[in-house]
């Protein structure tokens, strides 16, 4: 998907320290070879332990304001002054101020920041919410708190997605996500949620000892999963698909969830982040603090 439509966590919550260090090394080499003065935007893709460089641009990206607010460092101001002739040394930054070192600083300061994209889908009847290479978001919000779960919860609330604390979770996932769905479903059941799933997912989860109610796919006739969503019987949707036919078949699920303002996740990564947010909220209500409270000095 387009990077502008993605969620972002600083510090990264799912990357190994070795991977972050290697990205720092590669970024430093790229900046030197390209002779960049000011800001540089690098997009990486990580699969397992392999790092792929998608693109490098000698400019700022829309993530810069988020990074500044998450770390307390006025990145754009510093870059502009460096481009005008000042030296980095004059700003008293750490010897290696990079995403890796800023992540370490954020961790040590005791907070995590999550950026979430905001989409206008509800204003356009018939539009599918699935993302692709074309950017669709019209804004972004940020949640900040002591841990990832609470920060993600705040980001979802800010984006208009109110995560449920009770009710029923609808799960329908593609075959290669079924193993990961077991642990997710067990955690949700442990929090008191009921589970509803279509045939293949229901059979797989039930085979792992979970209590899951089966519901028809739309093509199997009523009463089906979309009926359950419309009638208020579902409080959160987890639906991953692949293949043109499966994507087309699940369109009504996505659209119904959008129209009825039900949180809906189309990746396991998003669903797992939502679980962590629900777990965090179950431990206590969210608290609000000004951004300045997270840093020693204001910028």
Strand content: 15-25%
Oligomer category = single chain
CATH superfamily of the domain at 3-110: ATP-grasp fold, B domain
CATH architecture term of the domain at 3-110: 2-Layer Sandwich
Q: What does this protein structure show overall?
A:
By secondary structure, this protein is of the alpha/beta class. Among the domains are: 3-110, D-amino Acid Aminotransferase, Chain A, domain 1 (2-Layer Sandwich), CATH 3.30.470.20; 164-262, 3-Layer(aba) Sandwich (Rossmann fold). Helices cover 38% and strands 16% of the residues. It contains eleven helices and ten strands. Helix 7 links the parallel strand 7 (194-197) and strand 8 (213-214). It is elongated. The two termini are 33 Å apart. The relative contact order is 0.12. The mean pLDDT is 88.
SSE order and pairing:
Layout: E1 8-10, H1 17-34, E2 41-47, E3 50-57, H2 64-71, H3 75-83, H4 99-109, E4 112-118, E5 139-145, H5 148-158, E6 168-172, H6 178-190, E7 194-197, H7 199-207, E8 213-214, H8 225-230, E9 236-239, H9 244-249, H10 251-259, E10 264-265, H11 268-282
Parallel strand pairs: 6-7, 6-9, 7-8, 9-10
Antiparallel strand pairs: 1-4, 2-3, 4-5
Helix pairs in contact: 5-11, 6-11
């Amino acid at each position: 998907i387009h990077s502008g439509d993605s969620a972002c966590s600083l510090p990264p919550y799912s990357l190994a320290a070795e991977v972050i260090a290697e990205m720092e090394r590669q970024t430093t080499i790229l900046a030197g070879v390209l002779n960049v003065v000011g800001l540089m935007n690098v997009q990486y893709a990580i699969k397992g332990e392999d790092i792929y460089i998608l693109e490098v641009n000698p400019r700022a990206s829309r993530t810069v304001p988020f990074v500044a607010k998450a770390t307390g460092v006025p990145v754009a101001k510093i870059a502009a002054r460096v481009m005008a002739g000042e030296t980095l040394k004059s700003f008293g930054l750490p010897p290696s101020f990079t995403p890796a070192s800023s992540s370490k600083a954020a961790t040590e300061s005791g907070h995590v920041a999550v950026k979430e994209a905001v989409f206008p889908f509800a204003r356009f009847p018939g539009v599918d919410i699935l993302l692709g290479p074309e950017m669709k978001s019209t804004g972004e919000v940020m949640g900040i708190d002591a841990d990832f779960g609470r920060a993600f919860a705040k980001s979802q609330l800010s984006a208009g997605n109110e995560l449920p604390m009770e009710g029923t979770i609808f799960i329908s996932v593609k075959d290669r996500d079924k193993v990961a769905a077991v642990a997710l479903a067990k955690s949700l059941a442990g929090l008191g949620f009921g589970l509803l799933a279509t045939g293949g997912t229901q059979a797989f989860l039930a085979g792992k000892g979970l209590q899951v109610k089966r519901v028809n796919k739309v093509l199997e006739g009523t009463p089906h999963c979309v009926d359950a969503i419309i009638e208020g019987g579902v409080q959160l949707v987890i639906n991953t698909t692949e293949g043109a036919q499966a994507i087309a078949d699940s369109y009504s699920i996505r659209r119904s969830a959008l129209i009825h303002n039900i949180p809906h996740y189309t990746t396991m990564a998003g669903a797992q982040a939502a679980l962590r947010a629900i777990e965090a909220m179950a431990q206590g209500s969210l608290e609000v603090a000004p951004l300045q409270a997270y840093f020693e000095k204001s910028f």
